[in-house]
Structure formats: C-alpha cells, structure tokens
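Researcher: I'm preparing a figure for a lab meeting and need a structural model of a single chain. I don't have an experimental structure, so a prediction will have to do for now. The sequence is pasted below. Please return the structure as tokens so I can convert it later.
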Amino acid sequence: MQYEEIIGKLESLKNPKNVEGMARFGIRPKTKIYGAPVPELRKIARIVKKNHQLALKLWDSKIHEARILASMLADAEKLTVDQINKWVSDFDSWDVCDQACMNLLDKSEIAKNQISKFAKSKEEFIKRTAFALIAALAVHDKKMKDEDFMDFFPLIKKAAIDERNFVKKSVNWALRQIGKRNKKLNKEAIKLAKEIQNNHSKSAKWIANNALIELTSENVQRKFKN
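Model: Understood. Here is the structure written out token by token.
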C-alpha cells in the first residue's frame, strides 16, 4: 500500500460516533481525526510492514490515525534524536503518545536516553511521554535490570505532584507497571508509593493510593509467591 492508498483507507474508516466517543475519553487532538479503530490500523500495519520513510510521510499528514499508524511502521533503529524530539513535541493526545511509546519508542535506545529530559518538560504530553515510556519499558523490555527501573523512582516521585490529568495518570501507570514486573520491584514500588502517599498533593495521594490497591492486590501478589 502506498501513501495515497493508506490515506484513502483511513478516510473510508471515518466514524463520527467513534470521534465523539474518543472525545469523552479525553482524545481531542488538534489534528484531523477520523475515528478509525486501532485494530484496523494494525491490520494496515501488518500489510505494509516496516517502512520508515512512509512512516515519516504519514506523520507529516497531521492526521490522528495516520500518526498512530506511523508509530507502527517506523523503524526504531533508524530514529534520530531530532526525529524523536519532533514527534514527541507533536503529541496532542494521550493515545498517540502512548501508542508511539508502546509501538516504537520503547525499542529505541536513543528514546530511553531522553526520558529524564522529557520528565522535566513543562509541556503536558511531552512530560507524559517520559512516564508512558517507562511503563512500556517495564512491560516490554526484558533485558533491563531492576536497578534501571529504580533509577526512575526520583522522576516518578517528583512528577507525582503534577496535578495535570494526563501527567498524573502516566506517572501512576509507570509506577504500577514497574511494581508488576517482579517480586523485588513490587516491594520497591510499594515502598515508593507509600512515600508518595505522604505528600499533601491531591495528585500524589491519588497516584499512590491507586497504585497500592493494585500492587498489593491478591492477583498481583499471587504471581510472586513462587
């Protein structure tokens, strides 16, 4: 499938009801949006396969679904610092941010090295990227060591006081995914959550309380008994 064919396919998947539903879940991008379901985008990605140049072109289309598809088609090994920074600065919704982190950025060493910088950003979606990427790494990167994730703890603790919805939810997500990785990190994440819980910030208390409910739950603890 070529660029024009893909764009035509996305237009054919246009669904105003889906767009309305996405808006109710906080997905209100500044770019054009069709409401095409992610499973349909994955079908296209399986047909097209990896194509970095096509991914760059799709991203520049400024179409919401085309950008999600671009994150599926791009080659992590071909990413540059400038391209990563450009894409991250273009994020205008949590789903594009999260899809890019889970489909692409968590496979890039360059992107991993940008986490600390992203976490310091004043821009809501750039800052979200840091913690969505940590969450994605906790799930997907089997080579990372426990200490690598514990190095993120100061970033999580500092960002826990950020009251912005899309930041606090990503901080919570990162903390929970780290704590579900193994027994040691579960204990360390619970310890960190309790430290965060002592903060007077409403956001920090919400992040900590929500994480503790899951990380101390029977379902999670059962995984670590053996």
